Amino acid sequence: MPSKHKLKTKTTSKEGSEGEASSEVETEHMEEANASSRTSEANLLEAIQALKTHFTTQLQEIITSNQEIKDTIGVFLERLTSAESRISNLEDGVASLTGKETSIQKKIQDLALKVDELENRSRRSNLRLVGLPEKTEQGDTAAFLQIWLIEVLGRDAFPSPPIIERAHRLQGQSVPGGPPRVIIMKFLNYQDKMRVMTAARLKGKVMYNGRHVMFFPDLSAEVVKQRKQYDQVKQQLRNLNINFGLIFPAKMRIFQRGNRFLFHTPTEVEEFIQKARQQTDGGTRLRKTESA
Predict the structure, then answer these.
(1) Which of 195, 243, 244, 187 is nearest to 218 (CA)?
(2) Of the candidates 260, 166, 175, 174, the residue with the CA atom closest to the CA atom of residue 218
(3) Interhelix angle 266-291/231-239, nearest 10 degrees
(4) Which domain holds residue 190?
(5) How far is the CA of 276 from the CAs of 82, 114, 237, 262, in angstroms?
(6) Mean pLDDT throughout 194-205?
(7) Does pLDDT of 146 surpass 60?
(8) Boundary (domain end) residue, out of 155, 184, 218
(9) Does residue 136 lie within any of the structural domains?
(10) What predicted TM-score, i.e. pTM, was given to this entire model?
(11) How many other CB atoms are found less than 10 A from the CB of residue 206?
(12) Is residue 269 in a domain?
């Protein structure tokens, strides 16, 4: 019996030693685990701190960049406001200049009309002689015309001999075989000029050595330009045997069947010609029907 007890005591003692050794191992493992855990936490904290520092730096750069952008936008806004103000001032100036330009253009047109009127008034006593051969006047054109007008138009056309202040041919060289240069004559009295025009119209054709010469009023370039617009309708009126005449500055008077018509533009004359042709065609058809 005593031996069994001793054996049991030895066994228990052995088991206690093994338990202590196991406990120590577990403690070491726990300490190692705790140390490893602390190391991981430290590394994590260090990494987080590094990220925080990096993000802080980046955020500060972004904030600085945004501030620079805001400052730049502010400068641009100031410049844009200044530009808008200048553009507005320029637009106001342009509008003002446009109004002034319109007013100036109207004044220029009015002045041009007045100058043209004055020019035509200065030419009021002038006549243009077309078709008189070169060198006919033999030097003194005015003296020649004063005698020749009475001879060709008749003494009855003039209560007293017409007085011509001056006369000359237009500048330029005469071309052999070409038309003679136009003669411009200025009468002392406007009535003498009108007597020459009336006598020439009543005579029909004025001749000199077998050549047809014609008298025309001396007008400004602007009035001549306006009158040339009637050239086409003038030919149409001649074809229809309709009498017409131009009156100052550029109006057309038409005589038909004892009636007088006054037109201010070539378009009005064309409308009149169309109606006259319709009447002529209608009368022709009527006569043909009656004869049949």
Answers:
(1) 187
(2) 166
(3) 20
(4) 124-218
(5) 70, 37, 10, 15
(6) 93
(7) yes
(8) 218
(9) yes
(10) 0.58
(11) 20
(12) yes
Nearest to 152 by CA among 242, 101, 212: 212
CB burial of residue 187 (10 Å; 0-12, 13-18, 19+): buried
User: How far is the C-alpha of 181 from the C-alpha of 129, rounded, in Å?
Assistant: 9
Amino acid at site 193: K
Distance CA 209, CA 212 (A): 9
pLDDT at 16: 56
Cα dihedral across residues 80, 81, 83, 88: positive or negative: positive
User: pLDDT band at residue 27, thresholds of 50, 70 and 90?
Assistant: confident
Do 265 and 214 lie in one domain? The reply is no
Residue type at position 68: E
- DSSP character for 155? G
Q: Rounded distance, CA 266 to CA 243, Å? A: 15
List Cβ neighbours of 286 (8 Å cut-off, separation of 6 or more): none
Q: Pick from 74, 101, 118: which residue ends a domain?
A: 118
